[in-house]
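Margin note: ligand = fe (ii) ion.
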Amino acid sequence: MKRYYIGLSVSTHDPALAIVDQDGETLFAEATERFLQYKRAPNCEPDNERLVSLLRRHCDQKAQFIVAVNWRRFTARFSRLLSQVGLTSAKAIFKSRSPDVKFNTPYSLRTKITNAYAASMYERLGVGFSYAMKLAFPESRYSIRYYAHHLCHAALACYSSPFSEASCMIVDGAGDFGSFAYYRYQSGAIQAIREQKGFASLGRFYADMTWLCGFNPDKGEEWKVMGFAPYGSLDQKAYELLKSLFVFKGSEIRGISSRAYQNILKQLQERLAANTLESRNLAFTAQQVFSETLIEAIRTFHRTCPSDNLAMAGGCLLNSSAAGLIEEQTPFKRLFVPSAPADDGTALGAALLALHRDHPRRHPDKRNGSPYLGSEISKKKLERVVQVSNTPNLRHFPGTIHIETAKLLSDGKLVGWVQGRAEFGPRSLGNRSILADPRPATMKDKINARVKFREEFRPFAPSILYEFGPEYFENYQESPYMERTLRFREQVWTKVPAVVHVNGTGRLQTVKPEYNEKFYALIRAFYELTGIPILLNTSFNVMGKPIIHSIEDAMSVFYSSGLDVLVIHDFLIRK
Ligand SMILES: [Fe+2]
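Resulting structure:
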């Protein structure tokens, strides 16, 4: 009987499901938000609705399933509550955590409510899962394993990295105990060094700054603070207050008391209300404190666990501005951050941990580094939709679609580009992308006004042929998952103004044919026409919605926005 490992992220945000087979191949990995088209899918169970169809598509009918869950302590707490499940428990949690807090950001209040409702999410998951298994796979067996949350992050970072040995550091909002965790990775084994306990949390800090700057971290709007920061400057008073939140003692990072923390947030909020602190300056200052704290924590870690290689994960690694500084400002020579460093990635991390428990000597499958692990739009479905809708201006370009598309891009057209399997993680990496010519300075405003309907201060990312990286960027580093922001060389700013942020940086994706052959061919064709090896690449969605999932989503964004062209596989539709 074949064995499959089903990884579940059951966090109260970014739920996800992953399937790995007994040979170590990742068959599927995707955040639930895509299928639901509900940004970050807060309080949703991972994929109950389509669990049966996913398992039928990827697994044998008669099989053994190991279900691997991405929380140990947290889940166990709620499992206990399930014995007395219902609103009473939810209210009890809410009440027990409420007193004694003098100041609440909406975010901390939201966390309490979310925790309370998580109990019912676990119940729905349990019921849905048993139902799916018993009805659809009656001859199969399954068992459940729970893993420490940060260990799941670490498993994805280490097993999908190109390293055979590395130091590994996790930084997120909170794990089973605290928000920093440290590991040593060698010969396929991940050994825990230390899990930081206590209140110090860079993830929580950034979420609170997001609220104070006027954005919503529940919707993942930490991006906006990062994009907004370069428009501000350092506010010395705020800097001193924020720096005092993190105290380094030996190899420990200690937070201050909850009361003192809340008091500092309150002071900042009062200054914002009185207009003595501008939100753009708070964004700049918060980003500065975040980066400095992260860099200092990594340097401290290197002293206790030296290596040339550093594997990192956790939601804080979505901060590409800080990630871009790590190789430059710490003793580690090589950094690896997986395509899904936040909690969606822990679904795959948990599945890989379960696999490696059963096969400890098996060398990690390097295919785990591919970000293209999600759903696919089948050709059959595409042909049916095309037939039924009788779409005019549709043409088929088998084998030459990249050349036709490059011509339209160089002509200034905005292109929705859908190929192969969806990316695992929050960034569009050339399979669910909106693409444009980076040369016109007006292109950014054009996309914002016609397609994305989003704030003008947010930058658009450059996808660059990897061999041209050193020509365009200072201190060039490969960035296959758009995981780091680097400085453009000043002499190229005017060549590609639509992808150069106000501070001269870009959150780049380095594209190699072995990662994505078709996307590489498209940028190459654009380069041959224009002499520019870069395309502007932004996620295929509209503001506030997740990246498109189905062909219906793609068509709906295409026809309701100012996109000029939609490419799906080798089909090209013009408006
Ligand atoms: Fe996490």
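The first helix runs from residue 32 to 36.
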